[in-house]
C-alpha cells in the first residue's frame, strides 16, 4: 500500500511507515494512492464480519503485511459485534458500542494497536494522543499492557464526562493521562507541536494514535460493510447514512467504503453546535468559531482534522461536495431528538440522537436511512438520565472502572511543560 501526504504529495510512504509516523511533513495527512474497487459486493456481504474484514483490509493494504499476520491482527481487534437495530419504519441504527470501552473508537483503536505492534521497529514507542472523550479510552485499552509501548493521553480538564474519564484514567501501567486546563483544540495543538519537534520525536519514538492514523480509518471502513450486510438488497438500493461527526474520521471511513464499491447513495455529516462543516457546505466559507462545549462532547471540534481527507476523496472520485448532506443541532434540539427517539422505543445517547434527527429530517421517500450509534447510552449516563428522566444501570465494563481512583496528572496548555513531562 502506497500513501502520500496530502499537503506534499511527493512525500510517499508505505502502510508500515504511515502507521509508525502518523503524520507527514507539515502535519500533512497520509492518504492511499489507490483504492481498489470490489465488483463482488454481494459475495463480500455474505461473509461474517471478521472474514469479510480480512478481505477488505487485505485488498486495501496489499501484500505489505503477510496475509496470515493481517488476518490475526483483525481477529484480535474485532472481537465484538456491530448489530443493526430497527428504530423506525425505514430507519436503522448501527450500534458500534459493543466493544470493551463501549464506543466505536474500539474498532480503530484496537486495529491500530495491532498494526503498530506488527510494524514497529526496535526501540521505544510513545503513543501521544489528544482525546475529546472516547478516543482516549479506546487507545488506552487497546495498548494497555503491550510491551515497550508507552501511552500518553491529553484531554480537556472538566470537559469530558466523569465516566469517560474513569474509563481510561484509572489504568496505570504503561498508560499516562494528563488533564489539560484548556479545550480539546488546544490539546490537539499540543500534540501537533510535539510531532513537529524532531528531537522529541526521535528520542521517545513519538507516534500518534488518534483518528489521523490511517490504520484507524481503514479498520472503520469494515463496519459500513457490516451494516449493509444486515440490510436487505432492496434497502441497500437507496441507502442514506448519517454520521455523527467531530473530527470526521468516521465519515472519511464511510467515504472510503463507498469508493471500494459499497452502495451508499449519500452521506449526511451531522454535528452539534460546532458546525464548521455544515456552514461550510452551505456558504462555501471555512470559518471555524471557537469550540463550544455541548452534550455530545466527543464532537466538540471546530477544526476537524480529517476534513482534508474528505475533500481529497471527493476530488479524486469526481464527486461534488454538494452531494454531501449535513445538519447541525444545538443542545436543546439534541434533547428533543433523544426524547423523540426514546418515545419510539429506542434508547440512544446525544451523539447518536443528533445523527438520527438530522437523518429523519432529510430522508426522502423510497430511501432507507442508517445512522451510526457511536457510544453506549451509559457512557453519557448523567445527561441521558436527566433528559429522559430514567435510571440507567451501569454496564459492567464501566462499573468496574468507576470504582477506581483517577491517576491523571494536570497541566496548562504549555508545550514546554509537556515536552519536559514526555522526556521524564
Ligand atoms: C469520536 C466520536 C465521534 C466523532 O467521530 P469522528 O470520527 O471524530 O468524526 C462521535 N461520537 C462519539 C461517541 C465519539 O466518541
UniProtKB/TrEMBL annotation:
Has keyword Amino-acid biosynthesis? yes
Indicate whether Amino-acid biosynthesis appears among the record's keywords.
yes
Which reactions appear under catalytic activity for this entry? O-phospho-L-homoserine + H2O = L-threonine + phosphate
Q: Name one GO molecular function term.
A: pyridoxal phosphate binding
Domain of life, per lineage: Bacteria
Q: Which cofactor does it need?
A: pyridoxal 5'-phosphate
GO terms classed as biological process? threonine biosynthetic process
Q: What InterPro entries does UniProt report for this protein, alphabetically? A: Ser/Thr_deHydtase_PyrdxlP-BS, Thr_synth_N, Thr_synth_N_sf, Thr_synthase-like, Threonine_Synthase, TrpB-like_PALP, TrpB-like_PALP_sf
What Pfam families does this protein's entry cite? PALP, Thr_synth_N
Query: Which keywords accompany this UniProt record?
Result: Amino-acid biosynthesis, Lyase, Pyridoxal phosphate, Threonine biosynthesis
Q: Where are the transmembrane segments?
A: none
Pathway assignment:
Amino-acid biosynthesis; L-threonine biosynthesis; L-threonine from L-aspartate: step 5/5
Which residues does the record list as N6-(pyridoxal phosphate)lysine (modified residue)? 105
Q: Where is the Tryptophan synthase beta chain-like PALP domain?
A: 88-367
SUPFAM superfamilies, sorted? Tryptophan synthase beta subunit-like PLP-dependent enzymes
- EC number annotated for this UniProt entry: 4.2.3.1
Question: Which top class of enzyme applies to this chain?
Answer: lyase
Stretches assigned to the Threonine synthase N-terminal domain: 10-78
- Stored NCBIfam families: thrC
- Spell out the family assignment given in the record's similarity comment: Belongs to the threonine synthase family.
Query: Which named protein is this?
Result: Threonine synthase
**Organismal lineage:** Bacteria, Pseudomonadati, Pseudomonadota, Gammaproteobacteria, Pasteurellales
Amino acid at each position: 500500500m502506497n500513501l502520500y501526504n496530502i499537503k506534499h504529495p511527493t512525500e510517499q510512504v508505505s502502510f508500515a511507515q504511515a502507521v509508525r509516523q502518523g503524520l507527514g511533513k507539515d502535519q500533512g495527512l497520509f492518504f492511499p494512492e489507490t483504492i481498489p474497487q470490489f465488483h463482488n459486493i454481494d459475495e463480500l456481504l455474505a461473509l461474517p464480519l471478521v472474514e469479510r474484514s480480512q478481505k477488505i483490509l487485505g485488498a486495501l493494504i496489499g501484500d505489505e503485511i503477510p496475509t496470515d499476520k493481517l488476518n490475526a491482527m483483525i481477529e484480535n481487534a474485532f472481537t465484538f459485534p456491530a448489530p443493526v437495530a430497527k428504530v423506525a419504519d425505514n430507519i436503522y441504527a448501527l450500534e458500534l458500542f459493543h466493544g470493551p470501552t463501549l464506543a466505536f473508537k474500539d474498532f480503530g483503536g484496537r486495529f491500530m494497536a495491532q498494526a503498530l505492534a506488527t510494524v514497529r521497529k526496535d526501540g521505544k514507542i510513545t503513543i501521544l494522543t489528544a482525546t475529546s472523550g472516547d478516543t482516549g479510552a479506546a487507545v488506552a485499552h487497546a495498548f494497555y499492557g503491550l510491551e515497550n509501548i508507552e501511552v500518553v493521553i491529553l484531554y480537556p480538564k472538566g470537559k469530558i464526562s466523569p465516566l469517560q474519564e474513569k474509563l481510561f484514567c484509572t489504568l496505570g501501567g504503561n498508560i499516562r493521562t494528563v488533564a489539560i486546563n484548556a479545550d480539546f483544540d488546544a490539546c490537539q495543538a499540543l500534540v501537533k507541536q510535539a510531532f513537529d519537534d524532531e528531537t522529541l520525536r526521535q528520542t521517545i519514538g513519538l507516534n500518534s494514535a488518534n483518528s489521523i492514523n490511517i490504520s484507524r480509518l481503514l479498520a472503520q471502513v469494515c463496519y459500513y460493510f457490516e451494516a449493509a450486510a444486515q440490510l436487505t438488497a432492496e434497502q441497500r438500493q437507496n441507502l442514506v447514512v448519517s454520521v455523527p461527526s467531530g473530527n470526521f474520521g468516521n465519515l472519511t471511513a464511510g467515504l472510503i467504503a463507498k469508493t471500494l464499491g459499497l452502495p451508499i447513495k449519500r452521506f449526511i455529516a451531522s454535528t452539534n453546535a460546532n458546525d464548521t462543516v455544515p456552514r461550510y457546505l452551505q456558504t462555501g466559507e471555512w470559518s471555524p468559531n471557537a469550540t463550544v462545549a455541548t452534550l455530545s462532547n466527543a464532537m466538540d471540534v471546530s477544526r476537524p482534522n480529517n476534513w482534508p481527507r474528505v475533500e481529497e476523496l471527493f476530488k479524486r472520485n469526481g464527486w461534488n461536495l454538494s452531494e454531501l448532506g449535513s445538519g447541525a443541532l444545538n443542545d436543546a434540539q439534541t434533547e428533543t431528538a433523544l426524547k423523540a427517539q426514546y418515545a419510539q422505543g429506542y434508547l440512544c445517547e446525544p451523539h447518536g440522537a443528533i445523527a438520527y434527527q438530522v437523518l429523519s429530517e432529510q430522508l426522502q421517500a423510497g430511501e432507507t436511512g442508517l445512522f451510526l450509534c457511536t457510544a453506549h447510552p451509559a457512557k453519557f449516563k448523567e445527561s441521558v438520565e436527566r433528559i429522559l428522566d430514567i435510571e440507567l444501570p451501569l454496564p459492567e465494563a464501566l462499573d468496574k472502572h468507576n470504582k477506581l481512583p483517577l491517576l491523571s496528572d494536570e497541566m496548562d496548555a504549555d508545550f514546554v511543560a509537556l515536552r519536559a513531562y514526555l522526556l521524564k
